[in-house]
Each structure stands twice: as C-alpha cells, then as structure tokens.
Design a protein that fits this description.
The structure is a single chain. By secondary structure, the protein is mainly alpha-helical. The protein has five helices and no strands. The longest helix has 30 residues. The chain is flat, with a radius of gyration of 15 Å.
Length: 117
C-alpha cells in the first residue's frame, strides 16, 4: 500500500539526503505506518469477512511488541539506543497497530504528520 501511494519512494529519497539519525527516524515512521495499515487491514477484513477470532488481536499485539527495536536491542546488546531504531519501540508498534485496527481509517495512519511517532 505504501509503495502504491508513493510513500516508500519519497521516504527513501528523504533518507538518502539525511544523516544516519534522520534516516533512522524516517525509517521508524515508515515502519510504524505499516503497522497502522496492518491494523486497518485487519479491521476492514474483519468487517467484511469476519475473520478475526478470539485471541487474534492479542497475538498481533504480542508480535508487534516482540519485534520492537527496544526489546530486540535489550535482548542482543543489553542496552537500548533509541537513535538507532529503524522500526520503532515495542510500545510504538503496538500503539500504531491498535490505532489502525480501532479506527479503520487510513487517514489515522499518517505517522509523518504525528508530532511523535
């Protein structure tokens, strides 16, 4: 979806003209937007096809939390360096997925307009 909307092309261009910290921040916003859009997809699919079963949302939240940069860094390095994040923290990933799921509105997934990702 992000590719079809031209978001990835714009983000890659901005990343290329940024320093490492700026490029990482752009990457985080792209990934969190993808999490939100995944939540939107789940909302839409469930509304039309009733595919979400008990425990599915919790499993999705657990998966999003498990692959947060903070959690992965803590497990591998023992420390967390937020400036090196490329996908977002566990809390951010859960929050954005939940936002898409609950709102069912792609306009709620504009991580680039948000003051904090």
């Amino acid at each position: 979806m992000q590719n079809s909307l031209g978001i990835l092309k714009t983000a890659k261009s901005e990343e290329a003209s940024s320093d490492r910290r700026g490029a990482n921040a752009i990457s985080v916003r792209v990934e969190l937007q993808a999490d939100c859009l995944a939540g939107f997809w789940a909302h839409s699919a469930d509304r039309t096809k009733h595919i979400i079963e008990q425990g599915d949302v919790e499993a999705a939240m657990n998966a999003a939390s498990a692959v947060g940069d903070d959690r992965l860094q803590r497990q591998s390095r023992g420390t967390v360096v937020p400036d090196s994040f490329t996908h977002g923290s566990s809390a951010q990933r859960v929050r954005w997925f939940k936002r898409g799921l609950e709102s069912g509105d792609t306009r709620q997934c504009d991580t680039f307009a948000a003051s904090e990702p």
